[in-house]
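Late entry, evening session. Most of the bench is empty. Finally got around to the prediction I had been postponing all week. Sequence below, unchanged from the version circulated by S.P.
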Amino acid sequence: MEPLIKEILNSQHPIPELTARGWVRTRRASGKAFCFVEINDGSCLANLQVIAANDLPNYNDVESLQTGASVAVSGSLVASQGKGQKWELQARSLSIVGNADDSYPLQKKGHSVEFLRSIAHLRPRTNLFGSVFRVRSRMAYAIHSFFQERGFQYVHTPIITASDCEGAGEMFRVTTLDPCATYSTPPKPEDDFFGRPSFLTVSGQLEGEVFATALSRIYTFGPTFRAENSHTARHASEFWMIEPEMAFCDLRGDMDLAESFIQYLVRDALLHCADEIGFFDRFIDKGLTQRLEAIAGSPFQRVSYAEAIRILQSSGKAFEFPVENGQNLQSEHERFLSEEVFKCPVTVHDYPQTIKPFYMRRNDDGKTVAAMDLLVPGIGEVIGGSQREERLDVLGQSLMAHNLDPAAYWWYVDLRRYGSVPHAGFGLGFERLLMLITGVANIRDVIPFARTPGSAEF
């Protein structure tokens, strides 16, 4: 295989003969003698400058090269005489692999992210989105590294499920029944493909608990779906979740893991995606590098939900959404705590049981559950987790209190019947993490093909 441009640019010595392949970013003539052609293959942010002299047999074709064309260039890598690059490639041959005409929409000028979403098949070729998706790839690798280094087993949980993990009712139905058909008798649930109402998963947590109570430490990493008619910059209908689960673990251990997880990922990004983060800092979110370095190097804070409410209510801050005890914190409340009060990531724990799902462990006060949210500056909540309810009788009470049929969760209840143990876990929205790492403000711009209400193109 020929070297990638990233490898070429990182060379420590001149190379007398090599072939580079990529797409033309710019071409400009220097009089009649030669052309400067900058090419990029997506392996890094930087372009490779090619010097194409007029003695090339197909120099007329080189002079007509358009941005977006794909080329293969053979020649010598030599020290650059110009500013801004260490090396340049002196071409001995340049072949055009695929032409592009002047209708190519990614010309050398600024493009809005809204426009680029409309050409999602081409936006990875831009500096912004090429950088975003290289970071996405690296963070996926780092996630697996973090858990594998700590003895976690990777488990694939089902995408189609009959269980509603969150009890929110905002799920996509999966059915083979024709909604436009006229049936002589109305179809019954058992007439459907799976013999019961089935949905795209909102979480792999419940199935993850099955494996945690057998393998001790597991994690899931896959797509999840939420049929919530939300058009905010933080919500998508299809997104990826990382959900570790640990047997013999309480809420404190859960918070310890979540905090070390975020620091590990931020440090990995600073180490391996320095060019991309520098680019984001310059053009997307000034101060990003400093904020990430603070997250990577500073201890996190912890505060109870009750104390967080007291701080917010006594702050004198005029919030858009009033702060009310017994209600979920809004994004503006979360960011105020992490950005203005603690000035660092903060974990809020022990939430009222009335606002949390059935599976969270009830605390001894009978009013709160062993739940936690990890809040970070610039984003707000990135992780939500809890100790799970391991007591058979209390879990049954919680299911009934949430109007859920215990018979539908018979297998989940069985985990408490046979060798139950304290266990805990959390969920991290992958795209929320990427928004934190890149400073990109809209979730649609950190996922390759966004799925949002009214939009499923590409």
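Two things to note before I forget:
DSSP finds 13 helices and 16 strands in the chain.
The chain has a mean pLDDT of 94.
Will write this up properly tomorrow.
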